[in-house]
User: Fold these one by one.
Assistant:
Number 1:
Amino acid sequence: MSYFVADAVNPFSPASSVARGLTVRTLVCMFLLLPVLLAAVSQAQGSGSGKALSDSQEASETQGYSETQEPVETQGPAKTQGSTQMQGPLETQQPPEGQEPSAAQPPATNQAQSMDQALVDRFAALNDQVLELLGQGRFEEALVPAKESYDLYTAVAEPDSTELAQAMNNLAWIYTMAGRPAEALPLYEQALSILEWRAGPTHLDVAVILNAMGNVLDSLGETERALESLERALSIREAQLGEQDALVAETLNDLGWVQSTLHRHGDSAASWGRAVAIWDSAQGLDPQIRATALNNLGFALAEDGQPDKAVAAYRRALDEQAMLLGEGHPETINIMNNLAEVLTDLGQWVEAEELFRKGMGSLEQSGMGRSDLAATIINNQAELLSARARYGEAEGLILKGLDLREELYGKESPEYGVALN
């Protein structure tokens, strides 16, 4: 069988930013570290660090400048990964209650003030570049000013501070979205170490980093470590937020993907099922996120030997996706193919054949008749016809599918070998 499981839970697929509901409004808030930089510059120049940190915290509460995976949460549960906002400076870094910041520091000279302003102006210019490029989805290009601003910030930041962890997190997120998870991972690991020390191992910000790391590790093939990271994130979120919170659903969604990679389909079905149930009662959810999770749930149930439940999940996913994107959209056709595959296994051949034909017709009409999805549908149609003892028709489709696989991948490719078998 040739099921397609949607990749919306994995941040490294090309269409993931769309599937996860990213918007320009979200992106515009992602790299706002300027209040923290101002605080760090003031502290480095000895101009009243307590007051500067207090101002920075006030700014962080009103703007929200950092979040793991997607550094600022503005959309509610529309994202499938990481939405807990970082908390800003530690309270222990502020002056004790009722005590004013120390006035014993000498005032900054005009030259020092000029240097401070030049530093802030440079950081602000870099920040503007990052925001513009993020808003356009140009993540690789955004890395250039992002790395420069990160280096600029780390030169004045307090070592092992929560602010430094936030800066690491933001840069790691851009590496992730640029498809460079190997460079994101050490930044996430350093940020996690700092936050565990500063905030404690069960703090919600720790869960955010763990969730991000789980997805990065999965993309790097370190699936067991990914599973451990996501299970720990889930445990923290359930304990702190309750089992019905939208952030719990997001971690369950990511966990389902890793469990599926490990062929633990019963576990992945349970995780995706819980996520869907939570999202059914959530407000403000991007409905495409739920439709994708329903498709993934159908896949897990089918692989776990529960075809009737898989059909129910696929039917619901198909209805929702068709309403959102239209019946001719590739993602809708993908779900149509998956549903037809399970119906074939159940012996419901008439409906399955109609779905295959409908999906193939839509692909040809949209100019995608020579795509990988088309090759998959052709192969699945051939299996259905073989099951119905229509061997002549099946052979014609098998040869057509082989030709298409050869055209797309070449005879030496694994894809061609699978189709040949």
Note: Residues 382 and 398 are 6 Å apart (CA to CA).
Number 2:
Amino acid sequence: MKIYLKTIIVCSIFFSAGCSKLPWKGDDGRSQKGSSNMGDLALQNSENEDVQVDQLYGLHTKQGAQIDSHKEDIQFLESKIDSIGSDVAMIMSLLKDMQQKFDDSGSFSNDSTAVKVVGEMAQLQMKVKLNKDRVFLMVGNLGTPQNNAVFKSQEEKNVPNLFPLSAARSMTDPLHRLKFGALSTYYDQSRAGVKWAVEEQGKSRICVLYQDTDFGQEIYDAVFDQLAAMNMEIIEKATNKPTDTDLTSQITKLRNANCEVIAMGTIVKDTILGYTKARQMGWSDVMFVGQVASYHPVIASQPDGITDGFYAFAQFPSPDKDSCSKNVCDWIDRYEDKFGNSPNIGSAYGYQYMDLTAKALEIAGKDLTVDSFIEALESIKDYKIPFGETVLSFGPDKHLGSNESYLFMVKDGSFVQMDDKNYSY
């Protein structure tokens, strides 16, 4: 069995799988085949079969609601749909209209617009992949709004959605036979952070700063639920828009409430704005605790160590030659030899997600169907991820591999893992 990947870049850090000429047996027994003139990166196992996998790619959010365009993604998509039929002109017209909007403005005035546009983009891409490429499964679809926008169309075509590049609860909750996630959610990480702050750090005045978005609401819910489980309440809350450029009023509000810990429902730009504002105001006796969306090297590498001391609960350490195990160091060397640049945490996500997918395909064996693949994936127990200590297990009633996370803190321009403990709630 060969599993083919494509090597185009997603959001500057993620690898995207593209379609290739890979036959498989559909639910109706007919041979299925996709097409592409792109080069293949193949994983081989003992079975002499080919399986088609794919991934959404394209427009992305960067530090909030700013939308950057990927012209190479548009060009790639154009080359792939040139034979789809009468819908080509419509699809390309819509994509180019979006492209021009991004080129002209570079940003949107509110996050709901951004979510709507990236959702439409995802639906257009998924139409091609489901109706022309006839994909067998999708691995590592990019982003929460993109995945939420295409779940229904994937379900209609009986196409599994595996390990999306999003830690939102909606990726696996509620349980669905076609939806699988690997690592802990924003909700899991935020609850673990609150529990750690109260039980291990002795804090009692817990507050929350969160985006006025679905993402931010998930963090707020986690903080509320964890405190309720401990017979406590949120002391104060403050919200921000992803497009805000100054969080002075929010930080002042939280400081006036004498918060000891601020759980952060923020991503990159707003995390930096909030944390640095507190430090500039001289507010140093408060802990800021984020989740994997704020576990980003841009936050850690701010000038003059201004973000030192920021905490984040994340799923595994980013690959780093300065602190890697022999196996991970060997993987980094192979990666650099093949691609000519150093891997980052996005590379690690892609590698382990495809490794896990390949394992399930090997278990499923010959005469592969969607049902046999799902049964194989649900049979995987105690899979240790290559880049940390997290162990993943699945089952018919368990489609999220793990709820655990690790504790990191910014120190001297990098996120440093604080201990070897797996945190949960």
Note: Residues 111 and 178 are 28 Å apart (CA to CA).
